[in-house]
Amino acid sequence: MSSRKSATGNLTRRRFLAGATLTAGGLALYSGEIERHVLMTVERTIHIRNLPAPFHGFRIAQLSDFHFHDYDESFFVRHAIQKVNELAPDMVALTGDFITTSKDEHRQAVPDAYACAEILREIKCPVRFCSLGNHDVSIKADVADALRRNGLTLLMNQFTTLEKRGERIWVSGIADAYFDVPNLALAMPKRKTDEPIVLLGHEPDFADTIASQNYYVDLMLAGHTHGGQVRLPFLPPILLPAMGEKYVEGLHTVGSSGMQVYVNRGLGCMHLPFRFNCPPELTLLTLQPA
């Protein structure tokens, strides 16, 4: 009798282990091959004070964290660009980490930078601004050259204007805040009016520094976090980088001035080629008056 119970118990344990193994394998397959390639378009309306009338309804498409070649294949970047072109935005913001670098990967990172930029040139919108991420910094001269050669405007501690019917908004970009030195004095225009500023900066938690130094920004576009990449139910994100631990994804309001920060989940992956409960993102932000 006891031997029969033992055999039944062993069979139950084997079934449990087999089921657990199949479940884990299924989750790995789903996270690595399915959700990692399911691009979600997130549309949000951003209300901005003193938005000039010609810019009411102005639409900004944002992509971030391509990590080209490392867990982010060229076909998927092309797919994202196709989706951007279908949306026909007024401006496109590309907020850094075009490549993945480590101490041993610089030789591969340089051709990856040019290959990624060559695909990004397929964006049909002529107003295309970029900022660099922490992975771009170690070969930033090459990344900057790749972007420039393909008609993409890099803003690194710089600003420019967009004008429509005699009215304008400002677009600024800072250097990467993780490994480089953002210079807000250079990146922020000396405004004589309350014309809105849209700022590109890779690390979202740097927004606290901007707010603490009393620089007024209406909207900051960031990436860096991948949204946590793996989001297990009922648990906080477990794969968050430094300077991306406070503002993880989506829209946030920072500081007493009401600066808005939007954090894009990115296209690519880091460390592991998995996404779970956190699909890659294409953002479409529509500006409207507050």
What would you note in describing this structure?
The chain is α/β, with parallel strands linked by helices and 290 residues long. It has 2 domains: 1-37; 40-289, 4-Layer Sandwich (Purple Acid Phosphatase, chain A, domain 2), CATH 3.60.21.10. Helices cover 28% and strands 22% of the residues. The chain contains 6 helices and 12 strands. The chain has a 6-stranded mixed β-sheet with strand order 1-12-2-3-4-5, with helices on one face. A 6-stranded mixed β-sheet has the order 6-7-8-9-11-10. Strand 8, helix 6 (207-212) and strand 9 (219-222) form a beta-alpha-beta unit. Helix 2 runs parallel beside helix 3 (106-120) and helix 3 packs parallel to helix 4. The protein starts with a helix and ends with a strand. The model is unreliable at 13-32 (pLDDT under 50).
Attribute tags:
single chain; 290 residues; alpha/beta; Purple Acid Phosphatase, chain A, domain 2; six-stranded mixed beta sheet; 6 helices; 28% helix
Please report the total strand number as a whole number.
12
Radius of gyration: 22 Å
State the secondary-structure class: alpha/beta
- Shape descriptor reads globular
Which range best describes the helical content: under 10%, 10-25%, 25-40%, 40-55%, 55-70% or over 70%? 25-40%
The number of domains: 2
- Summed up, the helix count is 6
Share of β-strand residues: 15-25%
Topology (elements, then pairings):
Layout: H1 2-34, E1 40-48, E2 59-63, H2 74-87, E3 91-94, H3 106-120, E4 128-130, H4 140-149, E5 153-154, E6 158-164, E7 167-173, H5 184-187, E8 197-200, H6 207-212, E9 219-222, E10 250-254, E11 259-263, E12 281-289
Parallel strand pairs: 1-12, 2-3, 3-4, 4-5, 7-8, 8-9, 9-11
Antiparallel strand pairs: 2-12, 6-7, 10-11
